[in-house]
Fold Sorting nexin-29.
Amino acid sequence: RVTCLCAQFEAVLQHGLRRSRGLALTAAAIKQAAGFSSKTETEPVFWYYVKEVLNKHELQRFYSLKTITTDIGRGRAWLRCALNEHSLERYVHMLLADKNRLSVFYEDWSFMMDEERSSMIPTMAAGLNSILFAINIDNKDLNGQSKCTPTVSDLLKESTQNVTSLLKESTQGVSSLLREITASSAVSILIKPDQDTDPLPVLSKNVNADLKYKKDRKKKKRVTNIISFDEEEDEQNLGDATKTLITGESSEESVDR
């Protein structure tokens, strides 16, 4: 992710650099003619413009790195150092402040010369201040020594491949998670209970059976009480009638009783 982020910033700073203007490019051409630098140094790199806004001590810091020997590496080291020290926003404001100086190093169609698009860079840089970076800036791999200087398309291709792989990994992870969830849900639907076995879940059936049994028991108890009460009353009435017939009591007394 850090490599991808740095490649994107490099692509922005590298976009539309002039090849035939600027004192830095002229000085690089003179160095190449004198044999003090390789042919790759004649290619425009964003370090030529970045060093214009750096003070003497900052320049000395990047020129004194042990393993960084090219301007490509110094530009990349500066970018990673700015991320480490959360100073990228401040540097970007300095790079965009002087439009006249920008026009000397960049073409009119470049990203940095587009006010609408370039105004988003400081905001993006400010959003990175909450992240703690610890990137090694004195790394020989940053020199980028090869047969030709990495172009903007190469940087974009590299960063795009990194993003694609990250998206692919995350998509695969989400897909596998969805497959697991779907599989676990399908199991409960596909499993059908046999006729000889109790349907799932067994716990629910037992609870329902217990509740049904308790309700039936209450109903029986209420009916039994009513029946027993009626039987007692019938027995009492039957006993009174029998007693009246035996003793031969008058109908009036029977009525009174």
